[in-house]
Write a structure and sequence with these properties.
Layout: H1 2-8, H2 14-27, H3 39-46, H4 50-62, E1 66-68, E2 74-76, H5 87-92, E3 100-101, H6 116-122, H7 138-147, E4 154-158, H8 161-172, E5 178-183, H9 187-195, E6 199-206, E7 209-210, H10 212-221, E8 224-229, H11 243-253, E9 260-265, E10 286-291, H12 293-296, E11 303-307, H13 309-319, H14 328-339, H15 341-367, E12 372-373, E13 380-384, H16 387-396, E14 399-400, E15 402-403, E16 415-419, H17 428-439
């Protein structure tokens, strides 16, 4: 197979290698399920750097032509319909109507604030204005600006965090642009960047967020036009960036004055870490997204976006040709929830409950020798010996988890599962027993 691949490559750039392998797959010379040679073998045979082959492999993965299976290797994908090629579809495929579905990454409905009082207070028609009214309620914009982690030049409200990322990406990215993201990253974001034709480069993380030296190296290797990151309660790892790390990253980014930073602060008020943003140091180059789905309810469909005028004005102008604005009625509900003492207390209680649930499950897992992280937010990132075997073992015990592979731009040192720890209100020891069994084959059940 190595000879077949190297013989087909005429252009030894990453794009040329990807195109040659894609032609072999389309023609049937590389059949579905075939295991590809390692990156180093291909690179050595072609006389190119492993980085070049890795980029070619990434492009093929994003196109759905090949897939990684952790340490098992890289394989030619079978024929899939377009939707099934999405990373996001791989997450939803983990849901199989099991008694305990921890694959979803959604907040606990029992911990969300009650919308009924807010709807009663603001549902009197006062929001029916002109189509030409400001897209954001003035009182809501004033409150959001007070809470923003840095003074944004422009601020608007859109229909959720992913809508914000979609609109920002559409305004600043062009086909073939290199984009830096965290590795691991949120699968729908990776799907979005793929749909725009961007070349995605994963940057390693540690317990405080992006690794500064790794970011510096990525900036040397690629002329990236944007960096997408999650400053708090990173999905899936739970990592939150502190002020010291933000300052270090901002210093590294001084060497890339053309690059735009896009921050997705999706956890919002349920994050235990304080708000932090690279925009405090690079406000003219940072777009910050503040989400309310996890804290106040996914069906509010609202997120705020703040940043430099050249990005936000382009976003707002393009939006005028579509929805124009996000529901001012829902904006009124959000304003009420952000200022009503009972709703504020409810969200604070949810934040504390999620922290307690994460801590209880993490402590139980560590007592069983399981490696996992869950520093913030509602998710837990758990290392497993084999992703597929672990998911099957969990399903046998009535538990569904999200596979780790869709989150990874490039494979990590081990396979992982994402567990929505925020949905686990009790029975942490019992669940930890089940998760430990799935983590390591043939592990014995813990005796009380």
């Amino acid at each position: 197979m190595l000879t077949l691949i190297t013989g087909a490559v005429q252009d030894r750039s990453a794009r040329g290698i990807a195109a040659a392998v894609s032609r072999l797959i389309t023609s049937g010379h590389l059949p579905a399920g075939a295991r590809l040679p390692t990156v180093r073998l291909v690179a050595g045979s072609l006389g190119v750097s492993p980085t070049t082959v890795s980029e070619a492999w990434r492009n093929l993965i994003l196109a759905g032509a090949i897939q990684t299976r952790g340490r098992s290797g890289t394989f030619v994908s079978g024929p899939l319909p377009p939707r099934a090629r999405l990373r996001y579809a791989q997450l939803s495929g983990a849901r199989v109507d099991l008694p305990q579905d921890l694959s979803t990454g959604v907040p606990d409905p029992e911990l969300l604030p009650d919308l009924a009082p807010a709807l009663r207070r603001i549902g009197d028609g006062r929001w029916a204005g002109s189509y030409l009214d400001a897209p954001v309620l003035p009182d809501l914009e004033a409150l959001l600006r007070e809470r923003w982690p840095y003074p944004p030049e422009r601020l608007t409200v859109v229909d959720g965090a992913m809508d914000a990322l979609d609109r920002v990406a559409g305004a600043v990215l062009r086909y073939g642009d290199h984009v830096l993201v965290e590795n691991p990253a949120f699968p729908p974001l990776l799907d979005l960047l793929q749909a725009l034709g961007a070349t995605v480069v994963g940057v390693p993380m540690d317990s405080a967020g992006l690794v500064p030296d790794a970011l510096r190296q990525a900036l040397r290797d690629y002329r990236a036009v944007a960096l997408f990151l999650q400053p708090r309660a990173h999905n899936p790892t739970g990592t939150s960036m502190d002020e010291s790390r933000a300052a270090l990253l901002a210093n590294v980014l001084l060497d890339a004055p053309h690059l735009l930073v896009v921050e997705d602060d999706h956890a919002g008020a349920i994050a235990t870490a304080p708000p932090v943003s690279i925009g405090r140091y690079l406000p003219e180059r940072t777009v910050h997204v503040s989400g309310f789905s996890k804290s106040h309810g996914p069906d509010l469909r609202l997120a705020a976006v703040g940043g430099p005028a050249h990005v936000l004005d382009a976003l707002a102008d393009r939006r005028l040709l579509g929805p124009g604005w996000s529901s001012r009625l829902l904006q009124g509900v959000l304003l009420d929830l952000l200022t009503d003492p009972q709703a504020v207390a409810r969200v604070a209680a949810a934040r504390d409950a999620y922290a307690a649930r994460r801590s209880a499950l993490l402590t139980a897992l560590r007592a069983r020798g399981v490696t996992a992280t869950a520093a913030d937010g509602i998710n837990l990132w758990m290392a497993v010996s084999d992703q597929q075997n672990a998911m099957v073992a969990l399903a046998a015990h009535g538990v569904a988890a999200a596979p780790g592979a869709p989150f990874c731009v490039t494979p990590l040192d081990s396979d992982h599962l994402r567990i929505t720890a925020g949905l686990v209100a009790g029975g942490h020891d019992e669940l930890a027993d089940v998760l430990a069994i799935a983590t390591v084959p043939n592990i014995r059940r813990r005796t009380p």
